[in-house]
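Consider the following assembly input.
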Amino acid sequence: MRLKVLCSSVAIWAALTGGVFAAQDVSVEQWLQRLQEAQSTQSYQGAFVYERKGTFSTHEMTRFSSSTGQLTEHFLQLNGPAHEVVRTNGQVTCISAAIADKVNSIEVWPTHNIALDPLHQWYDVIVLGETRTAGRTTAVLLFSPNDQHRYPVELYLDQATAVPLRSLLLNERGQLLERFQFVQFQPLPADSEQKRGNTASINCLPVNTQQELTDPEWAATAMGRADLNVSWVPPGFVLQRSNYRPSVDNDGYVLSQVYSDGLAHFSVFYEKIHNLEIEGGRHQFGPTAVISRRVMHDRVPLMITVVGEIPLGSAERIALSMQSDQESKDD
Amino acid sequence: MSQDILKQSLSALIDNEADELELRRVLNASHDPELRASWSRYHLARAVMHNENYSAQVDLSANIMAAIDKEPILQASETKKARKISWLGRVAVAASVTLAVLGGVRFYNQDILQQDIMLTQTEHRLPAMTPAASPVVLASHNASNTPLPVAQAATGQESWYERRLPSYLRQHAQQTSVNKSESGLPYARTASLEGQ
């Protein structure tokens, strides 16, 4: 009798775990597929917290996806200054006066669909299990990097809508670097925008058109050279976009290039420095590493700055990969 | 009196006969220019007595310190395998819970402490550090003669960073895209920079 019980329990256990192992891959693919689909169709309303070292803030967010395909998002910071942003189809249409002058481009937070192939190449995606977030059942997806050049990410997807309700960025030791987490979440029917009307307050000012330079050639000439780039980036990171903007406090320009591996991002900034004895520096702001380095490029002193949610060592290596001709010119 | 003791310790150190107390005493006073001069003189005397060659006045310490400061800090990176705990591993984990409770708390705290130290070090490790201020430049007896342009550069650099860093961070946060359904994250990153 005892043996029978033992045998049957072993058989049941084997059947269950075998099923789990077999289902694992399918379920990862299903979740990623659902995540992609939810990106454009789901309407919702909720409140979330954002936390990194030294910062904790709370925000309210509403998102409408109309039947015609128009997507409107409204963000409002609930603590401190009432930062407010409205974005329609990926373009910022209105922004509160407090940060209006700081946001100097219309292409703020550009959207893109998750590309699954590069993700699978550089991350192992594992379904860790289920838990609750904002009162709802969520599936936990771990994006575990294959090398040391990117951080692990835990994404908690709502069981019903596949909207990410929690996103944790960890370092290589598993310590929390950044938390984005809904505390309240309410899915909305697709046609709810008409009923509720425009939610933006009067403090939210319409955004002026494009301050970004439309003539990159001219700015490139002003920078001295057009072929500025770093010669090494971590494997998997590809150039997404590059643009010139007027500098903050001189009449020069800043060239910025954005690289991404599908999940993590870093930006490289190039700026001409005039008669400044600056050597560089390194900073860490929560998850964001900042490395600055002075290089001589064709006799032009440039400051190259790498900013990104990647390990400090990788950011440093990117910055160092830009060859300086300082040695030969100085001697 | 204390100078004499110090010089005796120094002499003992040069003859390789100093005990730990004496070594510490010399190290503590190593910023003293007089002691450095003595160090150099004793070496010269020793070289003459032993009929050895002595290349005097070669000061490498400042250059070495500068080179060390320029050296990039490479973060030791570990792989992420810790998270891949198989069911077998879980059994092992359960069995070692007692050990973890006893020893783990202490280790974990140390780990966090080290991490914090690392972060503070990186924040402070801007090149505004003066190599001569370091107390471990025993061999340097003319460090003050070497030109150190770092001090006056520091002010220019700080103001440059004050202006640039927020703008770079902001621009990076703005042009970061995650995906269409997670647009709250880059927005929150940008908003979190406004309070600073």
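Helices of chain B lie at 2-14, 20-28, 33-49, 61-70, 87-95, 97-124, 150-175, 184-194. Ask yourself how this observation constrains the way the partners meet.
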